[in-house]
Amino acid sequence: MTTFSFFKRSVSAASAMLVLASPLRAVVVSAANGTDESDYRTSKGVSVNGINHDGVMELLVRESGGGTFRSTGALLWTGQHILTAGHSVADNSGVNNVSSTGNSRAIFELSGGDITYNFRNDAVTVFPDFGGDLIGGGDIAIIDLGVEVDPSIPRYRIFDGDYADIVNNGVSFTFFGYGRSGTGDTGDTISSGRKRWGENEWDTTFSAQNLSLVYDFDNGLSAQNRIGGLGLGQDEANSAPGDSGGPNFIENPDAPGEYLIAGVTSWGLGGGSWDVTAGTDASFGELSGAANVAELADWIYVTVPEPHTLLMVVLSFGSLLIWKRP
After folding, report:
1. CATH number of the domain bearing residue 314
2. Residue 318's pLDDT band (boundaries 50, 70, 90)?
3. What is the pLDDT of residue 125?
């Protein structure tokens, strides 16, 4: 039986795929290439694949019902807005589910010491077309911290080009998350709470609006190759519970050396003859999905001031100051 695994719920029905998906993912690594999960742990201040990941934070979301949900987010260019998954801050219907008491936390792990920022429900904006259906896509949200964070923390821009260019041309992505871990043979057997990274390639998109980027977890064998080619083979990794909301970075095709958020970790799907274990646990042969940022860019730019808009404000303000000086 096909099983959907989400950070907040599980659905065991093939037909559920048409209705909803679930909060998901930490980094589960291949181990078929001689590595284990410890090789994919990040270090504060040490870049991975050219990416300064210190702007990727752990989110501990206090829900209105009293529980706490661990997920991941990324700091956007304003220095006060966080991009994360919609299901990280919403209930199964896509409605804001963050507590009003202000005890949700965004925790940045930095070389000079961790920095924590608190937020509550009025800081959260969920993509309005997200109704809890993860596979349908649109699984994103913005958290406005209300203040600009420490200037040493890196900010990220989004990929707003043609998503087909990255899906059809074998562009690999690097993703980060605070979720569970393990190996492809065993699945997510290690608890969440540590930042890890992994790599993969998107194979296709789901939903009529192509709002969900989809990839499988290959081990180099055709038996576990669920869709597309073998991708990165034994070098692939998969997301797992706790990775929800984490950024999927690609290199900017127009500015080599800059990395843009092209996906937001969203869901996982196990079962079938490809899967090496029962259920959904991020093992070899499973599928995972990320919100397609390029197709959601317009809404993100409406919700978060665009980089060029901020520059114009700074320039205008600077000119005003100069004009007033004696």
Report:
1. 2.40.10.120
2. very low
3. 98
Task: State the pTM of this model.
Answer: 0.83
Q: Which domain holds residue 203?
A: 1-326
Q: How far apart are CA 210 and CA 138, in angstroms?
A: 9
For 289, other C-beta atoms within 10 Å of its C-beta total: 30
DSSP H helices, 79-214, are 163-168
> Strands, DSSP E only, in 86-203?
104-108, 115-119, 124-126, 141-144, 172-177, 181-183, 187-190, 196-201
Residue 287: φ, ψ to 5°:
-105, 150
**Number of domains making up the chain:** 1
d(C-alpha 59, C-alpha 84), whole Å: 9
CA 61 to each of CA 53, 120, 209: distance values in angstroms, whole numbers, following the listed order = 21, 9, 29
What was the pLDDT predicted at 307? 65
Q: What are phi and psi of 177, to 5 degrees?
A: -170, 160
- Better pLDDT: 107 or 8: 107
Return the structure tokens found at 231: 């991708």
Least confident of 26-30, 60-64, 233-237: 26-30
Residue 322: is it exposed, middle or buried by C-beta count within 10 angstroms (0-12/13-18/19+)?
Answer: exposed
pLDDT at 143: 98
Residues 183 and 31: beta-carbon distance below 8 Å: yes
Nearest CA among 163, 237, 227 for reference residue 199: 237
SS3 105: strand
